[in-house]
Amino acid sequence: MLAPEFFPVWGGVGSYIIELVKRLPRNVNVHVVTLKRNVPEVCRKGLKGNNIDSIIGRPLEVHYISAARETFFYNLVFQLACFKAIPKLQKKFKFDIMHSHLSHMPDVFLQLSNRIHFPTVVTVHSTIQTQKEASMISTLRFSDLEWSEKYTTLLYPVINFLQKNYVKRIPRFIAVSNATEELIKKHLNVEKEKISRIYNGVDTQLFRPPTDIEIEKKYSMHTVVYIGRMMASKGLHVLIKAIPEVLRFFPETRFLFVGGGNIPFYKGMIEKKGVSEKSFSFIGHVGYFDRPKILRKASVFVNPSFFENCSLSILEAMSCSTSVVASDVGGNSEMIRSGKNGVLVPMCDHTQLAKSLISLLENEDLNKEIGKEARRTVEQSFSSQKMAEKTYDTYKRVLGH
After folding, report:
1. What is the pLDDT of residue 37?
2. Three-class SS of residue 113?
3. Chain segment 195-232, per-residue pLDDT in tens
4. pLDDT in tens, 265-324
5. Is residue 206 part of a domain?
């Protein structure tokens, strides 16, 4: 398993990898090839040094082949490290299959140079085209984009060229939603026969509903939570436009922003709206065990993104019985039945976003019912166990078993 994101910090790809590794059958010997990331502010509680086994709950071989700070070019460092390390690891451990991820392409140089001689499965979380298009939808100035979005825009021709040639060498792709499958066919020109559709999954034991005590606080103290990167493509400026209207009806509401990225820019944007500092907080990255605690306390989870394939942050909130308000984009409609287990709003519509947040904050019974139905949805269709079982079946198919 190539893991460009792993402990102690990860984005959506890292969460996906951890949930998958947890649930793969015990007869699978899992090796995680990853890097050490230097993000000092991250909570390391529960890691017990380097003993990842204690968190994953299964025997696991972890190979650290590089180290990096949180910069765009850490991915290049990891790609080069994979180019050098994977052939050596393969010679020693005799891997049967490699699992990679299109959004990072950690094995791109291995594939293009034909240095890899065993099959690869690639999960598609996004394409370079969707990343660029989502940033452009924001209409923010180039100078206001988050650094990863700036580099994606500037280096798009190079990355797109690498992506086109990379996918030609991959025998099997995993699409995390129907929307993703359509993107794979459209952007990558991959035949349907080479694609397995497997939804992302969540650990429903870790991301569990709140206790009775937590429920009382959850609805008596209004907290709207966003978890994700602070960047243009996530539609944060749309949410920020909605904040004053929500506060007009519920002045005690607190907006909590969790994740890294361009925090000073978005904090300044909120302050320009005249919003008091007591009404919002940016807390940066959080540790592995802290995200479920935050979600269980949230009155509403909000995701105003311009594109999502199968958002793990949305699924995690739903698993915690927290009602979700999200943009009606990408794969969101495959998870959310608006008005039943969440609320979908038009992309870029801050007025409708505010109305939906207000509706859930003022109607506790509706909020609770939507949260309960959201939990049932995850248990039935989006558990990490289901994801791992289907992924294992894909491995066997690729290997001809």
Report:
1. 75
2. coil
3. 999 999 999 999 999 988 888 888 888 999 999 999 99
4. 999 999 999 999 999 999 998 877 889 999 999 999 999 999 999 999 999 999 999 999
5. no
| CA-to-CA separations, 348 to 126, 234, 388, in angstroms, rounded | 20, 10, 34
Residue-wise pLDDT tens digits, 357-369: 999 999 999 999 9
Other Cβ atoms less than 10 A from the Cβ of 139: the count is 10
- pLDDT tens digits, residue range 82-118? 999 999 999 999 999 999 999 899 999 999 999 999 9
Strand, helix or coil for residue 185: helix
Same domain, 262 and 135: no
pTM of the entire predicted model? 0.93
Query: 125: which 2 tokens?
Result: 């979380």
**292/202 Cα distance (integer angstroms):** 11
Beta-bridged to residue 223, according to DSSP, are: 254
The amino acid occupying position 176 is V
Looking only at the bridges linking them, the beta strands covering 2-3 and 31-38 are: parallel
Q: Are residues 9 and 111 in the same domain?
A: yes
Crossing angle (nearest 10°) for helices 312-319 and 290-297: 60
Rg of the chain over all Cα atoms, to the nearest angstrom: 21
The order of strands in the sheet holding 31-38 is 2-3, 31-38, 61-69
**Same domain flag for 236 and 219:** yes
Amino acid letter for position 97: I
DSSP for 213-237, written as a single string = HHHHHHHHS-EEEEES-BSGGGTHH
- Is 44's pLDDT higher than 70? no
Same domain assignment for residues 123 and 270: no
> Looking at the predicted structure, is the pLDDT value of residue 48 above 50?
no
User: What amino acid is encoded at 96 in this protein?
Assistant: D
CATH number at residue 231: 3.40.50.2000
Residue with tokens 């099959």: 119
- Structure tokens belonging to residue 11: 């984005």
Chain mean position to CA 172: 21
Same domain, 115 and 169: yes
Reading the block at residue 144, the tokens are 């206001």
Cα separation, 136 vs 30, whole angstroms: 39
Whose tokens are 């000092």? That residue is 40
Please give the residue range of the domain that contains residue 194: 2-201+384-399
